[in-house]
Design goal:
By secondary structure, the protein is an all-alpha fold. The protein is built from six helices and no strands. α3 crosses α5.
């Protein structure tokens, strides 16, 4: 477990409950933010068609996640930055974490944001 995963796991139950309507649980929250960061990075690296538009949308979604977490009385920007740090640590070490979230769950969560 990374430091941010330990921090999220150690949150009081009343704080964790705030994540449930949008994310389901803390593991899915972590996975969704991780995947948002990964999509932003890959889009920036590979520069597919209309990548500027895609990056703008991805960054809007990331900002919404930060704002939502901040509305829970937590530091949304810091939490998202810590998860981004985990992603880049995995990226430079060629690690691909296993998440239990499906593509449909990911898209559904983004729509809730």
């Amino acid at each position: 477990m990374t430091k941010i995963q330990e921090y999220l796991a150690a949150l009081p139950e009343d704080k964790k409950a705030l994540f449930v309507p949008v994310f389901g649980d803390m593991d899915k929250f972590y996975a969704v933010v991780y995947l948002i960061i990964r999509n932003e990075h890959i889009t920036d690296q590979e520069k597919p068609d209309r990548y500027e538009d895609r990056l703008q949308v991805i960054r809007q979604v990331k900002s919404k996640a930060e704002a939502l977490v901040s509305s829970f009385g937590l530091d949304g920007k810091e939490i998202v930055a810590d998860i981004a740090s985990d992603y880049f640590e995995d990226y430079v070490n060629y690690k691909e974490p296993e998440f239990t979230i499906t593509g449909d769950e990911f898209i559904g969560t983004l729509q809730k944001l």
